[in-house]
Automatic annotation (TrEMBL):
<feature type="domain" description="Helicase HerA central">
    <location>
        <begin position="168"/>
        <end position="359"/>
    </location>
</feature>
<dbReference type="InterPro" id="IPR027417">
    <property type="entry name" value="P-loop_NTPase"/>
</dbReference>
<dbReference type="InterPro" id="IPR002789">
    <property type="entry name" value="HerA_central"/>
</dbReference>
<protein>
    <recommendedName>
        <fullName>Helicase HerA central domain-containing protein</fullName>
    </recommendedName>
</protein>
<dbReference type="Pfam" id="PF01935">
    <property type="entry name" value="DUF87"/>
</dbReference>
<dbReference type="InterPro" id="IPR008571">
    <property type="entry name" value="HerA-like"/>
</dbReference>
Length: 617
């Protein structure tokens, strides 16, 4: 029997209704079991997510099974009387593609979408394993039209005789992607499998793939998964033991835009008055101008002579040889270095000053307390906080340059044996939310600006992917002040990143909590088991290909199973993520309570050691 022939033994029913791309099929009376046997193989009938076909001579239409129900249930829902013979079984199918089988070339011409719709009474058939494999390989072939292969194998199609599933990384990352799944569904393992597959991929014969991938890791779990091929930057290490140490990273405060720095030093609990915002903006602009040698430094004591040029005493005045036009054109948001001490001096000795008798004197204590004190107090708290020392070290002439900071993230770094460390993992476990938000914003905006200032040729040679693990933490679907800057930065990458060669991979266990604007920009979805009804409903709103019905299968997916849909998928499918060796998996083990409870309790001496670490002794 030839592939895609009409096989009477695999007929399961006939169409009773066609509504757009959705059809309803009445199962034949001889379908009494969940399976059908053909040529020694057993084929399941009506499994959610399985593929069926409708014949039009040589043309075929393919659809996914999305729902099974009894006719009596449908009548019950519409409050119609149920006749005694209403025991038909109905199968709902979502049409997604059509094709023509060329028997001479043994090749399927596959086209996404449906142009020819079937008619009621036409028969519906199951696919053989060979036919299912042909569909997937034809779809992947159609998805690859370049002189190199962007198709990266990372999973197997469920129910297709273990056919390999390959993602088109050009489309998947160029149009952004989301990896979603409840805790314990294998989400981190799926991300690791995708990244390992990208590292192992050979786009052209005798070439090596060197991806530029930056992972924001809030739990410190990805470092052990990539060992030789990744460098782990650890922002804060409260323990200082071998398991948690990473390379130090330089992400200084001056990389922040004025708005990000304002978010950090004013914070969500302080009075966010316009006057306080202006205080920060003025001080940052002035401090950056001082570092750029455009203006003289602020005074370092009260009592100096007040300016006599009629302008406010705290406005920038050009140094000799500098024009006012240069100051007006100065952009305070560009990543230019500035001194925290200068920032402090401008607020304390200029903005918090008043003109008295021709000299600058301090404002009254009550004015200082109302307007300036909280900003300077917050700044001093951050300077003393060991968790963010990597950000708040005072800038000087020996501080790392912008070039060095960007090279940490996307430049070539080789480890032992000359192996390229292509993945850069920023471990931010232990950082407070009020810092994690601005830090993520700073990193996302820095990457975006870096891409904007590249030439077209440079962008072609340097595509970058930003992986946001626990994305609901940085771009939540709510408007808290500490996340505002991160939301703005990541939203911009989501909207415009593909034009500049920067892709986004959002990873979350709570898709309903991720900002809708960002998650709706994702063109590819890898959705593992989701047990929360709100999350399932949220995913169904954004799921491409008109396949929101597939979300019905999400609560029952097995470990490592996922629904793979969108631009990067050759066609919507249920897949099983590839297995990884233990040393390739992220460190995300669930605590073993029963095992732990049979072990000896910690002694008082061990508890004392932990307490000392907590207290910083």
């Amino acid at each position: 029997m030839n592939t895609f022939d009409l096989i009477p033994d695999l007929k399961v029913g006939h169409i009773v209704e066609v509504s757009g791309t959705s059809i309803r099929v009445e199962l034949s009376g001889d379908v009494t079991e969940l399976t059908r046997t053909y040529e020694g193989r057993v084929y399941p009938i009506g499994q959610i997510g399985s593929i069926v076909k409708v014949h039009f001579g040589r043309r075929l239409v393919f659809g996914f099974v999305t729902l099974l129900r009894m006719r009596s249930e449908e009548l019950l829902e519409t409050t119609k009387p149920i006749p005694p013979d209403a025991d038909q079984r109905l199968m709902e199918v979502e049409l997604f593609a059509e094709g023509v089988w060329n028997a001479a070339e043994q090749k399927l011409r596959f086209v996404r979408g449906v142009t020819t719709y079937p008619l009621p009474r036409q028969s519906v058939h199951l696919l053989t394993r060979e036919e299912t494999t042909q569909i997937y390989s034809a779809a992947e072939g159609q998805n690859n039209d370049g002189d190199y292969s962007p198709l990266v194998p990372f999973a197997h199609y469920v129910g297709a005789d273990n056919a390999v599933c390959r993602a088109n990384v050009d489309k998947m990352l160029g149009m952004h992607c989301a990896v979603l799944g409840s805790t314990g569904s294998g989400k981190s393992g799926a991300v690791a499998a995708l990244l390992h597959s990208m590292l192992e991929h050979i786009p052209e014969p005798e070439t090596v793939c060197h991806p530029r991938i930056i992972v924001i890791d809030p739990h410190g779990e990805y470092g052990q998964a990539f060992k030789d091929r990744a460098i782990v930057y650890r922002a804060y290490d409260p323990l200082g033991n071998e398991e948690t140490t990473g390379s130090p990273i330089s992400l200084p405060y001056w990389l922040m835009s004025a708005d990000e720095f304002r978010t950090l030093v004013i914070g969500k609990t302080e009075q966010e008055a316009t006057s306080q915002n202006n205080i920060v903006y003025k001080a940052i602009t002035y401090a950056r101008m001082v570092a750029a040698n455009l203006v003289n430094p602020s005074p370092t004591a009260h009592g100096g002579a007040a300016p006599a040029d009629g302008l406010d005493h705290d406005v920038p005045r050009p140094k000799e040889g500098v024009t006012f036009e240069q100051l007006i054109e100065f952009d305070h948001d560009k990543p230019r270095p500035f001194s925290l001490q200068e920032f402090y001096n401008h607020i304390f000795y200029l903005q918090a000053a008043r003109v008295q008798g021709g000299s600058l004197q301090s404002v009254t204590a009550s004015d200082f307390a109302n307007k300036f004190k909280s900003i300077l107090d917050k700044l001093s708290v951050f300077k003393r906080d060991p968790r963010i020392r990597f950000m708040m070290q005072e800038w000087n002439d020996e501080s790392p340059s912008l070039e060095h900071i960007i090279a940490q993230l996307v430049g070539q770094i080789q480890g032992e044996g000359g192996v390229d460390q292509d993945i850069r993992i920023l471990d931010i476990s232990g950082l407070p939310n009020e810092v994690a938000g601005p830090l993520t914003a700073m990193l996302a905006r820095l990457l975006f600006q870096y891409k904007i200032y590249q030439t077209t040729d440079e962008r072609k040679r340097d595509p970058v992917v930003l992986v946001c693990e626990e994305a609901h933490r940085y771009v939540p679907d709510r408007g808290e002040a500490e996340y505002a800057a991160a939301q703005t930065a990541i939203r911009r990458i989501a909207r415009e990143g593909r034009k500049y060669g920067i892709g986004l991979m959002l990873v979350s266990q709570r898709p309903a909590d991720v900002e809708s604007t960002v998650i709706s920009q994702c063109g590819t979805w890898l959705v593992l088991r989701l047990t929360n009804a709100a999350d399932q409903q949220h995913v169904s709103r954004f799921l491409p290909d008109g396949l929101s019905g597939m979300t019905k299968a999400l609560p029952n997916l097995a470990q490592q199973e996922a629904i793979f849909v969108g631009e990067g998928a050759s066609m919507p499918a249920r897949v099983r993520i590839r297995d990884l060796a233990q040393n390739q998996l992220p460190k995300s083990e669930t605590a073993k309570f029963a095992k732990g409870w049979i072990l000896d309790r910690l002694t008082e001496h061990e508890i004392a050691e932990i307490a000392n670490r907590m207290a910083g002794n």
